[in-house]
Specification:
The chain is about 45% helix and about 15% strand. By secondary structure, the protein is α/β, with parallel strands linked by helices. It has a single domain, classed as 3-Layer(aba) Sandwich (Rossmann fold). Helix 1 runs parallel beside helix 2, helix 1 packs across helix 8 and helix 4 runs parallel beside helix 5. The longest helix has 29 residues.
Length: about 270
């Protein structure tokens, strides 16, 4: 991440980040969020289900790595989530921020996607959000406040160039989840917002495109993706992280139940 002077925007906060690793080297959303939060003074509990993905997260945090605790948890296992949240609360006395960044697409429309893969998409991209919130939100209500930021996708609001109906439907559910629960808990000091990244260049995208391209010409596919973006460049996980940071910070104290789109203007196009 480009060096910047920390303003301590999250000093004294305890943040729980689900999906803090990455499928490969580079700036994935969760990795960048974890590093950015640590740079801004938060104690970050960085959670992933792949132990091998977390060392690079720590490495990229540099001098801020001491603020990051790594934990292994399968967010699809409700008992593991409950135990992890309970442990974090007992050790730190509070949880101020919850980030849900777990997810990933499976290709296919309704005639191609199997029932099993449809259910997997709902579980991974939507039920995971419900599960973590089910265990963290009571803590936030009891302590008098907190901020939840869920990472959805512009697939939730428009066609983005690929048939992936399970992913799109689940990510739309994440968006509506934030609106409904954000209103429900607003008077209790708990804010819930959603970030919708567009066609960013992340390790997950590299892996996905490589699976789709039999010839292995990933760069050609990336160039076609860039042409869809009015700014003609792709962002990466750091752009998502900065949006999440704003919504998680006290600077967004009067913002809840809404979405922030991070896509270089792509979703605003009419073609």
């Amino acid at each position: 991440m480009q060096a910047s002077e920390s303003t301590g925007r999250l000093a004294g906060k305890v943040a729980l980040v689900f999906g803090a690793g990455c499928v490969g080297p580079g700036w994935g959303n969760g990795r960048a969020i974890t590093v950015r939060f640590a740079q801004e003074g938060a104690t970050v509990i960085a959670v992933d289900n792949r132990p091998e993905s977390l060392p690079e997260t720590l490495e990229r945090a540099g001098t801020s790595r001491g603020r990051i605790e790594t934990k292994i948890c399968d967010v699809l296992d409700e008992k593991q989530v409950a135990e992890l949240v309970r442990d974090a609360h007992q050790r730190h006395g509070r949880i101020d921020i919850l980030i849900n960044n777990v997810g990933g697409p499976i290709s296919g429309g309704p005639t191609a996607l199997s029932q099993a893969d449809w259910q997997k998409q709902l579980d991974l991209n939507l039920t995971s959000v419900f599960t973590t919130c089910q265990h963290v939100l009571p803590i936030m209500q009891e302590q008098g406040g907190g901020a939840v930021v869920n990472v959805s996708s512009t697939s939730a609001i428009r066609w983005t160039g690929a048939a992936q109906v399970g992913y799109a439907a689940a990510k739309a559910g994440v968006m509506q989840f934030g609106r409904v629960v954000g209103v429900e808990l607003a008077a209790k000091g708990v804010r819930i917002n959603t970030v919708l990244p567009g066609q960013l260049h992340t390790p997950l995208v590299d892996a996905f495109l490589a699976r789709q391209q039999s010839s292995g010409d990933v760069e050609a596919l990336l160039q076609r993706r860039r042409k869809r973006i009015p700014m003609l460049v792709e962002g990466d996980g750091r752009d998502t992280a900065n949006a999440v940071l704003f919504l998680a910070s006290d600077e967004a104290r009067f913002i809840t139940g809404t979405e922030l789109v991070v896509d270089g203007g792509m979703s605003a196009r009419c073609d």
